[in-house]
Amino acid sequence: MVVKFRTSQPGYLLFLTQYKNAPSVINGPTEDGLGEFAVKNISKARIGLERKRSVRNGYNRIVLSQYGGPTDPNLQSRLIADFNKISSFQWPSWIKTEYTGFDNIELRSVGLAINHPDAQVRNTLYNCIDVDEFRRAAIPARKDFYDIQTVLPVGVPGASGGRPVQACIVPKRIRGMAIVLANPRSDNQKELATFSDKFNKNTGLHLVIKQYQPKEMNPMLFDRNYARPYNLVIVVAENFNREQDDFFDSYVGEDRAINDVPASIRKNFSLMRGEGFPGKKRIMAEKLAEQLSSAGLALPLYQTIVKLYYPKRIKNLSVGRGFIENPDVADLRW
To answer: SS3 for 203?
Structure first.
């Protein structure tokens, strides 16, 4: 297949590196991509990958296992080489002494999506929810937070470090209004109740913490025809490269967690997503991120920073190619 453009498209190769766009060929129930590994088998709890061409002193097979929570027996298995995709506070304590670690700032941002049709209510919530107090109440097991001013994590063009600028003023007409926070976690209820009591006292609003099972969250968040029953929900956005699109998608894209997004913001997101020149796209992304803040749609909470751990026998351990944040398994050797 030959692809031609009338004008230069400098972002096309980056576009192809995105998982959903990468070239692939159908191989039975799965697809083979351009990488060194192909899917060998899939079950409910595991996915097996096998290298297309074997190598010496490297990984030729990968088994991805479903995480079963804090009682998962795999947490004590020394056969597991990579625990890094579960949160750091869920890791087994032994990896800190038995594996090699290095610090890594991830291309992952965590924000609070604000879902309300009234712009004044949104802006009040944006300005009156103390970022540090809320994130420590919502994720009490996490101790380290890397501040970001917008939904773009540092390392992505257009991002800015530091906390959002806030100035809390509560209009009289919205005092006493009920605000619903959707909470899928079970380890933060006491902390969120304390935060809610203080917030209600300081603002005159009535923050209600509503519990949901994790399995209830996906249809609630991403079904376009679903009227979201919450006003606040935590959103995690990440990408494996420096492309900006995925950090906006959960707030203003087709699969967004917010019902009411101004048409002008959605239009600007579409224009930014279609821009092929990195310099122009950076400027558009920076402006769009500022619009999300000024419209009170997304309150940035933090960017994740973590120490990654891998078996000590690996000799060439380093962060992956280009701007990929994790080591490329195909390149690892011992």
So the answer is: helix
The pair phi, psi for residue 222, each rounded to 5°, is -115, 0
DSSP one-letter string for 32-101: E-SSSEEEEEE-SSEEEEEESS--SSS--EEEEE----TT-GGGG-TT----TTS-GGGS-TTHHHHEEE
> What gap in Å lies between CA 187 and CA 192, rounded to an integer?
10
Backbone angles phi, psi at 214, to 5 degrees: -55, -35
Checking if the pLDDT of 170 tops 90, the result is: yes
d(CA 243, CA 109): 13
* Distances in whole angstroms, Cα of residue 328 to Cα of each of 56, 323, 333: 16, 11, 11
d(CA 275, CA 272): 5
pTM score: 0.74
Extract the tokens encoding 316: 């060439």
Distance, in Å, from the CA atom of 69 to the CA atom of 66, rounded to the nearest integer, reads 9
Q: What percent of the chain has pLDDT over 70?
A: 93
Highest mean pLDDT among 122-131, 183-192, 297-306: 122-131
DSSP state, residue 148 = B
